[in-house]
Amino acid sequence: MKKTVFFGALTAAGLAAGMASAATLDDVKAKGFLQCGVTTGLVGFAAPDANGEWTGFDVGVCRAVAAAIFGDPTAVKFTPTTGKTRFTALASGEVDMLARNTTWTFSRDVDLKFEFNGVNYYDGQGFMIPKNLGVTSAKELDGATVCIQTGTTTELNLADFFRKNNISYEPVPIETNAEGNQQYLAGACDAYTTDASGLASTRATFENPQDHVILPEIISKEPLGPLVRHGDHEWGDVVRWTLNALIAAEELGVTSANVDELAKGTNNPEVNRLLGTEGNLGEMLGLSGDWAVNAIKAGGNYGELFETHIGENTPIGLARGLNAQWTDGGLLYSPPFR
Amino acid sequence: MSAITDPPPKSFRLSMLVNDTRYRSYTFQFIALVLLIMLVSYLGANLVQNLADQGQNISYGFLGEPAGYDINQRPIPYENQDTHMRAAFVGVLNTLIVAFLGCLTATIIGVFAGVARLSQNWIVRKLMAIYVEAFRNVPVLIWILIIYTVMTAAMPAPNAFRGDTPAASMVLDAVAFTNRGVYVPAPIWGEGSMIVVLVFLASIAGAIYYRRYATKLLYDTGRLLPMGWPSLAILFVPTLLIFFILGQPISLDYPVLKGFNFGGGLHIRGSLIALWFALAVYTGAFIAENVRAGIQAVSHGQTEAAASLGLRPSRIMNLVVLPQALRVIIPPVISQYLNLTKNSSLAIAVGYMDVTGTLGGITLNQTGRAIETILLLMLFYLAISLAISGVMNAYNNAIKLKER
Ligand SMILES: N[C@@H](CCC(=O)N[C@@H](CS)C(=O)NCC(=O)O)C(=O)O
């Protein structure tokens, strides 16, 4: 068994190197579909719905990229990955991109050799705890048993947080969010910690969400975004600018409802450049002129994606907060389309 | 008398490498070896080249860097600022702990079940058959998960022990069964406790000596000394005496509810229990079959001969059957021990931090050094397997039939 792992690693490394220089965009076009790595299931971000179709905020990014390339948001194959398997899946070429609650960090970017293509959710790590324990601050968690997903940044933040505050805890390492859920609800751990968005999404699936509180402390910065392998900049650009197109569309008032109308031409040159009626931005990316129109039509602009999947009118109920447009006091700021 | 002259040594010709049976096998083995070396070096060079293309290399420098993560079960002091190396070592110790406990328990279960499978009693025989078949034929990972899930779902959480009318209570005020594991009292080694331990060790030596002496006396003179109660007395009486004379230097630290969890005492985590018992009952089923086969391999004539000498059934088993059966049993049991140790790498399924969980799990993931860590892991499992089979083979040599 160990041998298999070894040769698996050998081939993975070999493949990774082979793929890194190859043009992913050409490969994807030749395959006819995009292969996107997502979570194993985090309602609102990426989870199969009742019909087995993957939906969610992260899934929306994958679909937008597929639509930008093929004009077809369903030309995606989703690969569920855990916190541990996601990077091997991407490095080995099993997936073309990851859109999976993944924090942009220095070492992942520089040492693990990945390329982050922007941020689709500004997050931070929080704690969830049953209300009846009467805890109001994470600093009161001395001696608590904490469920933590292994292979994540949150695992390291957790160690730092308790060390900094000079309190002790007992980590219970788990593989997937579903497993964490089960342990937490069975009372095998007192608290569950991960990205605050993940906590909100997890809590929304509980039978009695009101029995659980998310503590006010946010102990880290977790900018979550899509990523690709390092070294193929053309492919990185496609993903980066598709995400930017969704963000810029919201800023410019382009929605899935009016995009067809606006694509006939407007008197706003930036909208025209984005939607391909002026200039040749799509061609520069190696895509068709209406790439952004298709991406926006796939699931709506950034704001629409947010509202349908995780916004305040969904069970997950996240406020825009840091994820509002810069014009509304948030951090979303797409570079100009010119 | 004509002298017999040796035939003149035929000069060596190259074609003999293939045609001459004396050399042919060497030739082919040599070719195979060269091909193998070429294949391995091709794979190795390919790997290094591809890593270099990616801007990566093979380096073990990460082992000296701070690990940054915490481990719940720490046989040696460890904190998150310690190195990856130390984290790996903690994992190694955890692997050894569960492997040792598992092998020991599996042997006890296996011997018991194997002997009971040959029992005269129909119910006992069938029950053991069911045990063996049920556990041998379900993957061990499933057993690990079943035991773990039952533990977390069925046992009370620590805060069920709280309040005036708690929903759960400790057994004998000393042991708490919770969904996070079992808390038992831990010994506190006070001043003078070393003396008690030394006396106990000496008692063990004494008991062994007594049994040797009794056996020798039996063989030399035919006089049978009682074995059971004198050994027990030698084992415990002096230790207990010295314990009380020194004023009870060893006391117990009882677990008590403290904050979110129990504090004090010894915490045997649910993950360890699940892994340990699953491995033990699973491997025990295989060992039971080995034991049964070994016993059945001893010809029935031996039993009948012993019975006709007037030996009681328990003596027949202990003095005649088992010593011969062991020779058949030991070799397959060695491979069961190896299997158990390797199967312990399933630990991550329940979050037990063995070496696959620390070095091959978190360290691999946080540093991205997949090849380096997997190589180290292979080396570790290889070393531990060779060590186990070395020890067991030595034991096997000691008990096997001495042929002259
Ligand atoms: N942002 C962190 C944590 C990411 C993470 O593992 N998130 C969890 C919950 S927010 C998740 O996606 N779980 C889904 C799964 O188990 O597949 C990181 O990048 O390391």
Mind explaining what this structure looks like?
The complex is a heterodimer of chains A (338) and B (404). Chain A is an alpha/beta fold and 338 residues long. Helices cover 40% and strands 16% of the residues of chain A. In chain A, the strands form five sheets. Chain A has a five-stranded mixed beta sheet, sandwiched between helices. A three-stranded parallel beta sheet of chain A has the order 4-1-5. In chain A, strands 2-3 form a two-stranded antiparallel ribbon. Chain A starts with a helix and ends in a 29-residue tail after the last helix. Chain B has a domain at 84-157 and 268-399: Orthogonal Bundle (MetI-like fold). Chain B has helices at residues 16-19, 21-53, 84-116, 122-136, 140-154, 193-221, 228-245, 270-297, 300-308, 313-343, 355-367, 370-399; strands at 176-178, 181-184, 186-189, 250-253, 256-258, 261-263, 266-269. In chain B, a hairpin with a 2-residue loop joins strand 5 and strand 6 (261-263). The two termini of chain B are 43 Å apart. At the A-B interface, helix 1, helix 6 and strand 10 of A face helix 2, helix 11 and helix 12 of B. Bound molecules: glutathione. The site of glutathione (GSH) has 20 residues of chain A, from helix 6, strand 11 and strand 13. Glutathione binds at residues 39-42, 82-83, 101-103, 149, 152-154, 176-177, 194-195, 198, 222, 224 of chain A.
